[in-house]
Specification:
The chain is an alpha/beta fold. The protein is built from nine helices and twelve strands. Strand 5, helix 3 and strand 6 form a beta-alpha-beta unit. About 8% of the residues have low confidence. The structure holds zinc ion.
């Protein structure tokens, strides 16, 4: 009888042991993801959208020292689609507009510290730099198609679409619908623009992307409907906040939040401002 009771106890203990970690697993599947948004990296001046190379490097060292591991936006897609996992403390770093100074100043820092970044390209800026022949100046140039190809092939970078030529306030605000446009006209104009950049990526750089960054953070249900029908899966806004992502739930990919990294903060103050530790 005593033996029977101890075997019973063992079975009950094993059963409860199996239950505890599995319920923890469910709880762990919500992951907090800060996404940082950089633009220009310059030594000569600072601004709301200009960070110095030293501050950028300090940011990455701060993240590293606080246990963060950088991942791509495409890793968020895999996680939210249930096909990939995330590290315990993930961080996503993005650069908007495709400035050449990202290549000149940021690329060596990312390679040295083994950090990853997603760079969102404006096609018309890249076409202008490439075709004018006036490129590779960190102060004002944008990345050429060749540099974008090299970045996409580099283990530490991936590329997103930031429109071909809708990074303007006029005649529409970003990808916003014009007041005199009906849905079908809007759909055609947005599709033509975004697919023009995808075609450039494909023909000149040998890849396509399913990551979209909204110019000036402007978006709507209509723009989501159109862009998701074109195959885009992750959408970067300029709404500030942390992202709470659940494995297998892709609804949050529709409006991923980002913190603009203004050049006016020190590294410590910036991370205090966004509230991560
Ligand atoms: Zn932009």
């Amino acid at each position: 009888m005593k033996k029977f009771l101890s075997i019973l106890f063992l079975i009950v203990s094993l059963f409860s042991f199996r239950n505890t970690p599995s319920s923890n697993c469910i709880a762990q599947e919500v992951v907090t993801v800060p996404i940082l948004m950089y633009h220009s990296i310059l030594k000569s001046r600072k601004g709301e959208y200009i960070v110095s190379p030293d501050d950028l490097k300090n940011d990455l060292l701060w993240l590293k020292n606080h246990g963060y591991e950088s991942i791509f936006v495409s890793d968020l897609i895999k996680y939210c689609e249930g096909t990939g996992d995330l590290p315990q403390k993930p961080v996503v770093i993005t650069f908007d507009d495709g400035h050449y100074n990202n290549y000149y100043y940021a690329k060596p820092i990312f390679e040295e510290l083994k950090f990853k970044a997603t760079i969102n390209i404006v096609g018309s800026y890249t076409e202008f730099s490439t075709s004018s022949g006036d490129f590779d100046n960190p102060n004002y140039s944008h990345l050429t198609w060749e540099e974008i190809k090299l970045l996409q092939e580099n283990d530490f970078f991936e590329i997103g679409n930031h429109t071909y030529n809708m990074h303007n306030f006029e005649p529409r605000y970003g990808i916003g619908k014009k007041t005199n446009e009906n849905f079908e006209e809007y759909k055609k104009n947005l599709t033509d623009d975004v697919e023009k950049l995808e075609k450039c990526f494909k023909d000149k750089c040998g890849f396509t992307t399913n990551i979209f960054a909204y110019p000036f953070g402007k978006y709507s249900d209509d723009s989501y409907k159109i862009l998701s029908s074109l195959g885009f899966k992750a959408f970067l806004t300029c709404n500030e906040g942390l992202n709470y992502l659940t494995k297998g739930d892709s609804s949050k990919l529709k409006t991923l939040k980002r913190y603009n990294r203004s050049g006016f903060y020190t590294t410590e103050d910036f991370f205090k401002h966004i509230g991560i530790e």
